[in-house]
Amino acid sequence: MRRLMHQVLSSEIWLIIEDETVDFLYELIETPNNFIQHIRRMAGGIILRISHGYTTQKDGRDPYVEAAEKAMAQLSLATTPGAFLVDFIPFCQSINIR
Question: What is the pTM of this model?
Fold first, then answer.
């Protein structure tokens, strides 16, 4: 049963990756200057299609891909060492502000 599920799921995943790669190449031919934007759309498209079955917009302005990029930027800022006052003044951890 596991082997059969693996065969079915892996073939579907490879088809999704192939479709998104073809779309990426067409976009790259049309507008090669937007290479980074095309890469981000392709990566977001593969992830969203595999995880949620959602097909991203091909114009490069997909709201879900943009939301994921914003979330990653915020996470990167939040996890930067020394980004918060509590990193320098440890007793601030015990202050409860509500």
Answer: 0.69
